[in-house]
Design brief:
624 residues; alpha/beta; Substrate Binding Domain Of Dnak, Chain:A, Domain 2; Rossmann fold; 3 domains; 6-stranded parallel beta sheet; 25 helices; binds iron/sulfur cluster; binds Broken Fe4S4 cluster; CO_DH_a-bundle; hydroxylamine reductase activity; metal-binding; CODH; nickel cation binding
């Protein structure tokens, strides 16, 4: 049967994306949606997790007439092993990003880098104290050095637990200890997962799933949390401020540079170079009005949260941004960067530059960044972009207009400040039922869905039900484009949430950062639970990733659940080939960690699911 081609309308919710999809077709640029069509139908064995490639006696596929792999592994073991490696990949991604942040802090502390400095000394001292480092009588560098050494140790072979478990309620820590899933060290848990899934090691699906939880907890409460906290120390803790979102942030009369990836270490330097008067006059000499910097995906979130730099779009907008024909340079660090961007760039005058030795792309120019050359390299890049401006073919430029305004910058520090310094007023609002609970909607785009349909509709449905929504990652762009990140969106919220938002002047959907910043949400959950003297699993909270795609998103979902937060996913990971593993994820985990996953592609039904959960948690706390 011939495959049915999706219309542009079915591919995306957005006018800016639709216009660029149309232009891409005319310009002969292939996009992720085209390639998805070529890849469909997908391999059923892979989709259900029933393929094993862990040794050369295989590869093996589990079928009715071949229920065991050559070694004797059954469907449950193979599915659990595959899931374990999947989330280990995601945890490694976030955490290696965290390690790069520690190296930056360490280098600054030793005075080896003049390219970076400590912007938030108060936060450095606060975290050092929180983690038991004596700060009295010590200089900032000395404290930074001790803190970076402590964080380095969190990656190694700790016997006990990672440092930020001081933020975890005692009940939860006790539960993790009893289950044997207390995260000891980031690298340790990831390496152990690779070991356990080698042929002939952990051949018990539930036991493997418990180590998946442990590995992801090391990501959430260590790798990601360290990345977030150090980024705040080095570049400033986010405060609420205005920004803009959609492809309309690209400007026709300016040199346009896009930064893409996850780690702010490169993009913060690019921002400095873009503001350099020498670079601006160089751009003017070439006939541009100036230099415009905009972000994509999570690097975009990082720059927007701290510096208010506009966001061009999320994951599925990255190719489409190039299709505007007005982008001179796209600078990438790592993660979620489609290799197809090089090809798309070659269809125009757009140059793609990679900056990390661990994320090189064939066909892209490589300009490696390190602690000692970052300012110099950033200026070099901006100069390259300026030179590219004269190669732009104005007849091929088409930029969708009308970016949406949004408020960003809701770090926990900013939220607590807005509440008068303590979580008390938030707890009171929850007790009074004005805010019935909170849901974090996080994660990606996936071309299998109509882009952002699930992300936006779920947020809208939840705020109507007085459920405060927190967003990070690629959901930010979705809800921002829908206008939900503006205080006026309170008018779309239920009466209780509306009242609170109006009183505080905040939107009903709060932007809390990038993917690693989901650690901010974990911390907030810990603060609320500790304040009430309960476990995180007792709180009226939920997580959701309606359009997720990445290994990292699966790791986030797993650490949410293991931390006691019910988590909705638009579609399951590749685990449905095992009843044991699927049942464990959907219900069995509930009796172990007090939370589980829920699967629902329809955002309206998902809102029901989350609402029911929040209602039952409220009842558990004796609230109506
Ligand atoms: Fe097949 Fe077992 Fe080897 Fe996997 S580990 S490929 S199931 S023989
Ligand atoms: S960038 S992991 S597509 S959120 Fe963090 Fe977006 Fe998902 Fe990547």
């Amino acid at each position: 049967m011939p495959k049915k081609k999706k219309s542009i309308e079915e591919k995306t919710l957005w006018p800016d994306a639709a216009r660029m999809l149309d232009k891409a077709e005319k310009d002969g640029v292939e996009t992720a949606w085209d390639r998805l069509e070529q890849q469909t139908p997908h391999c059923k064995f892979c989709q259900t997790g029933l393929t094993c490639r862990n040794c050369t006696m295989g590869p093996c596929q589990i079928r009715k007439n071949a229920p065991l792999g050559v070694c004797g592994a059954d469907a449950d073991v193979i599915v659990a092993r595959n899931f374990g490696r999947f989330v280990a990949g995601g945890s490694a991604g976030h955490s290696d990003h965290g390690r790069d942040c520690i190296e930056a802090l360490h280098s600054v502390a030793l005075g080896k880098s003049t390219d970076y400095s400590i912007k938030d000394e108060a936060k450095l001292l606060r975290i050092a104290r929180e983690l038991g480092i004596a700060v009295e009588g010590k200089g900032v560098s000395e404290v930074a050095l001790e803190l970076s050494d402590l964080f380095f140790a969190d990656f190694g072979s700790r016997q006990h637990e990672v440092s930020f478990l001081v933020r975890v309620p005692e009940k939860r820590k006790k539960l993790w200890n009893e289950l044997g899933i207390t995260p000891r060290g980031v690298d340790r848990e990831i390496a152990e997962m690779m070991h356990r899934t080698h042929m002939g090691c952990d051949n018990d699906a539930p036991n493997l799933m418990l180590h998946s939880a442990r590995t992801c907890l090391a990501d959430g409460w260590a790798g990601s949390m360290i990345a977030t906290e150090i980024s705040d120390i080095l570049f400033g803790t986010p405060k609420p401020g205005k920004s803009k979102v959609n492809l309309g942030v690209i400007q026709e009369d300016m040199v346009n540079i896009l930064v893409h990836g996850h780690n702010p270490i490169v993009s913060e330097k690019v921002l400095e170079a873009v503001n350099d008067p020498e670079m601006i006059s160089l751009a003017r000499e070439k006939g541009a009005k100036g230099i415009n910097l905009a972000g994509l995906c999570c690097t975009g979130n990082e720059l927007m949260m701290r510096q208010g730099i506009p966001l061009a779009g999320n994951h599925l907008m990255t190719e489409l941004a190039i299709v505007t024909g007005a982008v001179e340079l796209i600078v990438v660090d790592y993660q979620c960067i489609m290799p197809s961007l090089v090809t798309a760039g070659n269809c125009y005058h757009t140059k793609m530059v990679t900056t990390a030795d661990k994320a090189r792309f064939t066909g892209a120019e490589h300009v490696p960044f390190d602690m000692h050359n970052a300012s110099h390299q950033a200026r070099k890049l901006v100069q390259t972009a300026v030179e590219g401006f004269s190669r732009r073919d104005s007849s091929r430029v088409e930029i969708p207009q009308g970016p949406m305004e949004m408020i960003t910058g809701f770090s926990n520090e900013a939220i607590l400040e807005a509440l008068g310094g303590t979580p008390g007023p938030l707890i009171e609002a929850i007790k009074a039922g004005k805010i019935r609970g909170a849901a974090a909607i996080v994660g990606c785009n996936n071309p299998k869905y109509r882009q952002d349909y699930g992300n936006v509709n779920l947020a809208k449905e939840l705020i109507k039900r007085d459920i405060l929504v927190l967003v990070t990652g690629c959901v930010t762009s979705a809800v921002g484009k829908a206008g939900l990140l503006m205080p006026e969106a309170a008018d779309e919220a239920g009466a209780g949430l509306h009242e609170i938002c109006k009183a505080l002047g905040v939107p009903p959907v709060l932007h809390m950062g990038s993917c690693v910043d989901n650690a901010r949400i974990l911390q907030l959950a810990g603060i609320l639970a500790n304040e009430l003297g309960v476990d995180i699993s007792d709180l009226p909270l939920a997580g959701s990733s309606p359009e997720w795609y990445s290994e990292k998103a699966a790791a986030i979902g797993t650490y949410c659940v293991a931390s006691g937060i019910f988590t909705h996913l638009g579609h399951p990971p590749n685990i449905t080939g095992s009843e044991t593993v699927t049942n464990l994820a959907l219900s069995g985990l509930e009796s172990l960690v007090g939370a589980s996953f829920g699967i629902e592609p329809d955002p309206f039904k998902a809102a029901e699911m989350i609402d029911e959960r929040i209602t039952s948690k409220r009842k558990g706390l004796g609230l109506s």
